[in-house]
Amino acid sequence: MAEVLEFRVPTGSAQTLLVWGLEPQPGLEHCLYLAFRKFGPLYSVRTHRNAAVAGPGYYAIIKFYSAGDASRAQRACNGQRLFQKSPLKVCVCIKQKGFQQQVFALNSNKCQELANHYLGFNGWSSRIITLQNISGFDAENEELGETLQKRSVKYLCAVEVTLPNHGIHTRGVALSEADVGNSEDPLELLAASRRVQKLAVGKALSSAFQKILLVVLENGKVAVEYNSTQEEPTDSLTEEELKGLVQV
Protein backbone atom coordinates (compact mmCIF):
# COMPACT_ATOMS: atom_id res chain seq x y z
CA MET A 1 0.00 0.00 0.00
CA ALA A 2 1.41 3.38 -1.03
CA GLU A 3 1.74 6.31 1.38
CA VAL A 4 1.32 9.89 0.22
CA LEU A 5 3.49 12.53 1.90
CA GLU A 6 2.98 16.27 1.69
CA PHE A 7 5.50 18.97 2.54
CA ARG A 8 3.50 19.80 5.66
CA VAL A 9 4.16 19.59 9.40
CA PRO A 10 3.17 16.02 10.43
CA THR A 11 0.16 16.02 12.76
CA GLY A 12 -1.14 12.45 12.42
CA SER A 13 -1.06 10.16 15.45
CA ALA A 14 0.27 7.33 13.26
CA GLN A 15 3.36 9.43 12.54
CA THR A 16 4.10 10.04 16.23
CA LEU A 17 5.84 7.74 18.69
CA LEU A 18 5.77 7.91 22.47
CA VAL A 19 8.97 6.61 24.08
CA TRP A 20 9.24 6.16 27.83
CA GLY A 21 11.54 4.52 30.35
CA LEU A 22 14.36 6.86 29.35
CA GLU A 23 17.27 7.18 31.76
CA PRO A 24 18.82 10.62 32.41
CA GLN A 25 22.00 11.14 30.42
CA PRO A 26 23.80 13.91 28.51
CA GLY A 27 22.67 14.43 24.93
CA LEU A 28 19.50 12.35 25.35
CA GLU A 29 17.68 13.93 22.40
CA HIS A 30 20.69 13.36 20.16
CA CYS A 31 20.87 9.69 21.20
CA LEU A 32 17.19 9.29 20.32
CA TYR A 33 17.68 11.06 17.02
CA LEU A 34 20.52 8.73 16.01
CA ALA A 35 18.60 5.62 17.11
CA PHE A 36 15.36 6.45 15.26
CA ARG A 37 16.75 8.36 12.26
CA LYS A 38 17.78 5.04 10.65
CA PHE A 39 14.10 4.25 10.03
CA GLY A 40 13.38 7.43 8.12
CA PRO A 41 13.64 11.23 8.29
CA LEU A 42 12.42 12.80 11.52
CA TYR A 43 10.51 16.02 11.88
CA SER A 44 11.24 16.46 15.58
CA VAL A 45 12.51 14.78 18.76
CA ARG A 46 11.42 16.25 22.11
CA THR A 47 12.20 14.92 25.58
CA HIS A 48 10.28 15.73 28.77
CA ARG A 49 10.86 14.97 32.43
CA ASN A 50 8.44 12.45 33.95
CA ALA A 51 5.71 13.70 36.24
CA ALA A 52 6.56 13.36 39.94
CA VAL A 53 4.09 10.48 40.40
CA ALA A 54 5.79 8.51 37.61
CA GLY A 55 9.22 8.55 39.23
CA PRO A 56 12.56 9.79 37.90
CA GLY A 57 13.39 9.62 34.23
CA TYR A 58 12.19 11.01 30.92
CA TYR A 59 9.81 10.33 28.08
CA ALA A 60 10.02 11.50 24.48
CA ILE A 61 7.73 12.43 21.60
CA ILE A 62 9.20 11.55 18.19
CA LYS A 63 7.52 12.72 15.00
CA PHE A 64 8.18 11.04 11.64
CA TYR A 65 7.05 12.36 8.29
CA SER A 66 5.94 8.85 7.32
CA ALA A 67 3.50 6.68 9.28
CA GLY A 68 5.18 3.64 7.73
CA ASP A 69 8.58 4.67 9.08
CA ALA A 70 7.07 5.27 12.52
CA SER A 71 5.47 1.81 12.53
CA ARG A 72 8.74 0.09 11.57
CA ALA A 73 10.61 2.03 14.25
CA GLN A 74 8.04 1.05 16.90
CA ARG A 75 8.25 -2.65 16.11
CA ALA A 76 12.05 -2.65 16.01
CA CYS A 77 12.74 -0.52 19.10
CA ASN A 78 10.05 -1.49 21.58
CA GLY A 79 11.61 -3.50 24.41
CA GLN A 80 15.18 -2.81 23.21
CA ARG A 81 17.92 -1.14 25.26
CA LEU A 82 19.39 0.78 22.32
CA PHE A 83 21.69 3.28 24.07
CA GLN A 84 20.90 2.61 27.77
CA LYS A 85 20.93 -0.24 30.29
CA SER A 86 17.17 -0.75 30.66
CA PRO A 87 14.79 -1.51 27.75
CA LEU A 88 12.65 1.24 26.26
CA LYS A 89 8.92 1.15 25.74
CA VAL A 90 7.78 2.52 22.41
CA CYS A 91 4.23 2.88 21.14
CA VAL A 92 2.38 4.70 18.39
CA CYS A 93 0.36 7.56 19.84
CA ILE A 94 -3.37 6.96 20.19
CA LYS A 95 -5.58 8.97 17.88
CA GLN A 96 -7.65 11.63 19.60
CA LYS A 97 -11.11 11.83 18.07
CA GLY A 98 -12.85 15.14 17.73
CA PHE A 99 -9.60 17.11 17.85
CA GLN A 100 -8.26 18.66 14.65
CA GLN A 101 -4.92 20.36 14.43
CA GLN A 102 -4.20 23.16 12.00
CA VAL A 103 -1.89 22.01 9.24
CA PHE A 104 1.14 24.19 8.50
CA ALA A 105 3.57 24.15 5.60
CA LEU A 106 7.11 22.99 6.34
CA ASN A 107 9.72 25.72 6.39
CA SER A 108 12.19 25.76 3.50
CA ASN A 109 14.94 23.92 5.43
CA LYS A 110 12.60 21.05 6.34
CA CYS A 111 11.30 20.92 2.75
CA GLN A 112 14.84 20.54 1.43
CA GLU A 113 15.63 17.87 4.03
CA LEU A 114 12.58 15.83 3.00
CA ALA A 115 13.27 16.29 -0.72
CA ASN A 116 16.90 15.21 -0.31
CA HIS A 117 15.87 12.03 1.49
CA TYR A 118 13.19 10.86 -0.95
CA LEU A 119 14.42 12.40 -4.22
CA GLY A 120 18.18 12.54 -3.68
CA PHE A 121 20.41 15.59 -3.67
CA ASN A 122 20.48 15.55 -7.48
CA GLY A 123 16.78 14.71 -7.82
CA TRP A 124 15.56 18.28 -7.57
CA SER A 125 16.74 21.84 -8.07
CA SER A 126 15.47 25.34 -7.47
CA ARG A 127 16.05 28.75 -8.97
CA ILE A 128 14.93 32.28 -8.20
CA ILE A 129 12.81 33.69 -11.00
CA THR A 130 12.62 37.16 -9.49
CA LEU A 131 13.43 38.90 -6.23
CA GLN A 132 11.99 42.42 -6.22
CA ASN A 133 12.50 45.22 -3.75
CA ILE A 134 9.09 46.83 -3.31
CA SER A 135 9.97 48.83 -0.22
CA GLY A 136 8.65 52.28 0.62
CA PHE A 137 7.55 54.54 3.38
CA ASP A 138 4.40 53.02 4.84
CA ALA A 139 2.89 55.94 6.62
CA GLU A 140 3.41 59.18 8.40
CA ASN A 141 2.11 59.38 11.96
CA GLU A 142 1.72 62.61 13.86
CA GLU A 143 2.36 62.31 17.56
CA LEU A 144 2.85 65.17 20.04
CA GLY A 145 3.18 67.59 17.18
CA GLU A 146 6.03 65.64 15.55
CA THR A 147 5.84 63.85 12.21
CA LEU A 148 7.34 60.36 12.36
CA GLN A 149 8.22 58.20 9.38
CA LYS A 150 8.50 54.45 9.64
CA ARG A 151 10.52 52.60 7.01
CA SER A 152 9.39 49.14 5.97
CA VAL A 153 11.56 46.83 3.85
CA LYS A 154 9.57 44.58 1.51
CA TYR A 155 10.66 41.94 -0.99
CA LEU A 156 8.60 39.89 -3.40
CA CYS A 157 10.12 36.58 -4.53
CA ALA A 158 9.16 33.93 -7.07
CA VAL A 159 10.95 30.55 -7.03
CA GLU A 160 10.73 27.54 -9.32
CA VAL A 161 11.37 23.97 -8.14
CA THR A 162 12.20 21.35 -10.80
CA LEU A 163 12.13 17.57 -10.47
CA PRO A 164 13.87 16.49 -13.70
CA ASN A 165 13.34 12.75 -13.24
CA HIS A 166 9.60 13.24 -12.90
CA GLY A 167 9.04 16.07 -15.38
CA ILE A 168 7.50 18.34 -12.74
CA HIS A 169 7.98 22.09 -12.35
CA THR A 170 6.30 24.08 -9.59
CA ARG A 171 6.40 27.72 -8.58
CA GLY A 172 5.99 29.57 -5.33
CA VAL A 173 5.50 33.29 -4.76
CA ALA A 174 5.89 35.01 -1.39
CA LEU A 175 6.09 38.47 0.12
CA SER A 176 8.19 39.27 3.17
CA GLU A 177 8.64 42.51 5.06
CA ALA A 178 10.09 43.97 8.23
CA ASP A 179 10.27 47.39 9.86
CA VAL A 180 13.59 49.17 10.15
CA GLY A 181 14.16 50.82 13.50
CA ASN A 182 16.49 53.50 12.19
CA SER A 183 15.97 54.04 8.47
CA GLU A 184 18.77 56.64 8.44
CA ASP A 185 21.39 54.01 9.38
CA PRO A 186 22.62 52.38 6.11
CA LEU A 187 24.06 49.36 7.94
CA GLU A 188 20.77 48.66 9.71
CA LEU A 189 18.88 49.07 6.44
CA LEU A 190 21.29 46.70 4.66
CA ALA A 191 20.99 44.07 7.41
CA ALA A 192 17.19 44.30 7.33
CA SER A 193 17.16 44.00 3.53
CA ARG A 194 19.30 40.87 3.57
CA ARG A 195 17.16 39.32 6.30
CA VAL A 196 13.92 40.03 4.42
CA GLN A 197 15.36 38.75 1.13
CA LYS A 198 16.34 35.45 2.76
CA LEU A 199 12.92 35.11 4.37
CA ALA A 200 11.11 35.85 1.10
CA VAL A 201 13.18 33.24 -0.79
CA GLY A 202 12.53 30.66 1.92
CA LYS A 203 8.78 31.29 1.97
CA ALA A 204 8.59 31.11 -1.83
CA LEU A 205 10.57 27.85 -1.87
CA SER A 206 8.25 26.35 0.73
CA SER A 207 5.24 27.48 -1.30
CA ALA A 208 6.61 25.73 -4.40
CA PHE A 209 7.09 22.46 -2.47
CA GLN A 210 3.43 22.55 -1.31
CA LYS A 211 2.44 21.63 -4.87
CA ILE A 212 4.40 18.35 -4.75
CA LEU A 213 3.10 15.02 -3.42
CA LEU A 214 5.54 12.21 -2.65
CA VAL A 215 4.04 8.75 -3.18
CA VAL A 216 6.13 6.20 -1.28
CA LEU A 217 5.51 2.68 -2.60
CA GLU A 218 5.81 -0.56 -0.63
CA ASN A 219 9.06 -1.45 -2.42
CA GLY A 220 10.61 1.81 -1.23
CA LYS A 221 10.47 3.55 -4.59
CA VAL A 222 9.09 7.07 -4.78
CA ALA A 223 6.67 8.47 -7.33
CA VAL A 224 5.77 12.14 -7.54
CA GLU A 225 2.47 13.82 -8.33
CA TYR A 226 1.48 17.45 -8.82
CA ASN A 227 -0.81 18.73 -6.06
CA SER A 228 -3.32 20.79 -8.02
CA THR A 229 -5.26 21.72 -4.86
CA GLN A 230 -2.42 24.10 -3.95
CA GLU A 231 -2.44 26.00 -7.25
CA GLU A 232 -2.30 29.80 -7.13
CA PRO A 233 -3.31 32.46 -9.69
CA THR A 234 0.37 33.28 -10.26
CA ASP A 235 1.01 29.75 -11.58
CA SER A 236 -0.54 30.71 -14.92
CA LEU A 237 1.76 33.70 -15.41
CA THR A 238 4.78 33.62 -17.71
CA GLU A 239 8.26 34.34 -16.34
CA GLU A 240 8.15 37.80 -17.88
CA GLU A 241 4.84 38.48 -16.16
CA LEU A 242 6.21 37.20 -12.86
CA LYS A 243 9.24 39.46 -13.14
CA GLY A 244 6.93 42.41 -13.66
CA LEU A 245 4.64 41.41 -10.81
CA VAL A 246 4.35 43.98 -8.03
CA GLN A 247 2.15 43.59 -4.97
CA VAL A 248 1.74 46.50 -2.62
Automatic annotation (TrEMBL):
Keywords for this protein: Cytoplasm, DNA-binding, Nucleus, RNA-binding
Q: Name one GO molecular function term.
A: RNA binding
Query: Which superkingdom?
Result: Eukaryota
Entry GO terms, CC: cytoplasm; nucleolus
Residue intervals of the RRM domain: 15-90
Matching InterPro entries, A to Z? Answer: DSRM_RDM1 (IPR057652), Rad52_Rad59_Rad22_sf (IPR042525), RBD_domain_sf (IPR035979), RDM1 (IPR040224), RDM1_RRM (IPR034200), RRM_dom (IPR000504)
Question: Where's it found, cell-wise?
Answer: Cytoplasm; Nucleus, Nucleolus
**A biological process term (GO) from this entry:** DNA recombination
Q: Where is this region: Disordered?
A: 229-248
Entry's PANTHER family?
RAD52 MOTIF-CONTAINING PROTEIN 1
Q: What is this protein called?
A: RDM1 protein
Q: Which organism is it from?
A: Piaya cayana (Common squirrel cuckoo)
